[in-house]
Amino acid sequence: MKKVLVMLLVALTVFTAFVSCSKKSAETAEAATTTTTTTTTTAAPVAETKAAEPVKEVAAAPAAVYERGDDEAIYEEVLGEYEALCAKAAAEANDDARFVLYAQAEAYLLDSAVMLPTTTQGGAYTISRVAYRTIPYVNWGNDDDRWYGIIISEDFISKEERAEMVEMWNAAVKGEGTYDAAAYLKSKGHNIVTDYKTTFSTAPVTLDTLNTSSQSDTEILVNTTDNLVQYNNLGQMVPSMAESWSVSDDGLTYTFNIRRGAYWFTSEGTVYSEVTAYDFEAGFQHMLDAEAGLEWLVDGVVKGASEYLYAGGSWADVGYKAIDKYTVQITLEQPASYFITMLTYSCFSPICKPFYESRGGVFGKEEYAAAYAAGTINYGLATDVSSQVYNGAFLLQKLNPDSEIVVVKNKKYWNRNAVKINSITWIYDNGENPVALYNDVVKGTYAGLGLTEASGTLALAKADGNFDKYSYVSDTTSTSYFCGLNLNRGTFALESGAVASTKTEQQKIDTETAMMNKNFRKAIVSAFDKETYNAVSRGQDLALTNLRNMYTHPEFVQLSTDQTDEDGHTFVAGTMYGEMVQYYCDKLGAGITVADQCNGWYNAEAAKKYLEAAKAELGDSVTWPIVLDNVYYSASNSQVAQSEAVKQVIEAALGSENVVINNVEATTSSDFYASGYRASNGEAGNFDIFYGSGWGPDFGDPCTYLNTFLGYGAGYMTKVIGLF
Predict the structure, then answer these.
(1) What is the CATH number of the domain that holds 364?
(2) CB of 530 within 8 A of CB of 602?
(3) Is 606 exposed, middle or buried (0-12, 13-18, 19+ CB in 10 A)?
(4) Which residues contact 27 (CB under 8 A, 6 or more apart)?
(5) pLDDT for 268-278, tens place per residue?
(6) Helix or strand or coil: residue 194?
């Protein structure tokens, strides 16, 4: 997600920030591979005087038919131990001890080879008119998509100017001065602009941010909605809809005092009603009722949420209540030091209760499900900006999914003096013409662009001098993209017939059987040369800059005290999370280097050894080569180049007589995303390997990543390995 799910954009634009077989599977495959050809037999030759025996025909065995396996059985075999390790960590109250336990779990996940971390955001050559870190700066939640404070110049910012702003920002974070980017730029002769244009490739499909878990829905709408608290551009948490808050001594109860005089507005700026505590309570219940992929974040965190979701519990017993008009009280199941960091994510957003009800909205899980099925709720429709009201810095005034999205400054917003721009306009761009996009950036239509080798934009910038004058390497982020290996494929073409696999039934069976073999999976991920994959898009000089080798950002958390694990190994205070994951990967013999900015998984010789082991274990249960479908978007030069690179490096390392990468073309971005990123569940994933999805953390604890691979529907990202 980030929030919850993030997609790997098909055009790299940077403006402000931008799986040994299971028993069941083995039995299915074995039955399917014991087919015989039709044969005829005759009796032995006899004297001519004896009539010949009639020919007896042997019935043909049925053709092989692929059958999808059982999600639960597959998960238990492949990741059951991982889930147990996560549960052990979650039960640990001490933060540092919990971090150590989660490091063990993450090492197990990586060693299972069901997924291969590939890249993170940023780390690209960029030219931009946007001032350094003038949006909220934080590694989790939605706030880094809030653009109200963005400072934009009419002209590109030079390398030297940007370097000076970086120094100013670092000093301000340390409390050694202030960071006023606008004043600095003006002093250098820049003119500041107040209307911002950027691009989008996937539009929101709903305006109800509590009924979605996709970043493409929330990254725009976060600009129209304020939560209880938010982060500023120095990474500090500050009041928003809550003017103040307190935490009980036992760490279980959080009390928030709601800001008086803040309002909900229609898309045209008319006051609808005052923001109250009841709107926050209503928002939380609606989020649980909708069950759209946010509810798992609070399962086991907020008191009574699990019972309400899964055991017929009463809303009255859920620990999220409006005590009065201006007081919200949240009660936890157990102390969670990271809980306050969760509040900047959309699952804690308010809704205007009276407006929601006026549009047919109802409360209660069964009641909501019935109303939704009946189509009587017309709240938050992406086709109608007036079907939502807004309490944030901007008002949504236009949403055309094929052309343009526009928000304008809310002139009556409670914190309007902090809003530095008058409008934000997103223009649809599917990445098919990066040269035209580059020219638009140079003309000033858009504020900036990430420069890549495959798109041709890097060469353009070098030719016209913009690279030398203005380019910089953008910051990397905590978002982690990864390649998922489909353990239990259920779809081989979209409903339209597009993006269709050419595999035979027997090839489908063989792929499923092979994918359930750990050594086979290890062979695939070890043969995936990420440096080559990345270089064809970004250029060789930045091929390593944004590589990520573990799921969680390696510096996401660190120990504040010395910690000794069950085997007697001590990690000293200050140890980064990634260092602990590396230690446990080494113990498992995973053969992985987890630090950023290195090709930490690729080892062609190891890949060959894993393949030899897999072939010995699989025996004659499969026919080689194993064919793996890899879906790519053919209108994107970067994706075309990357898909060809993936095929080349894996087949070169393992031999095309053993593994064939079948690059399957998606001719539209919607078909590409439908095959993976927007697949509704594991069964709907139309791929064998897919590297178009990623995860951005929702709050400040490793479980925000690792919980996404919990089983039985609890983890959001298991669908990218074909489960649940």
Answers:
(1) 3.90.76.10
(2) yes
(3) middle
(4) none
(5) 999 999 999 99
(6) coil
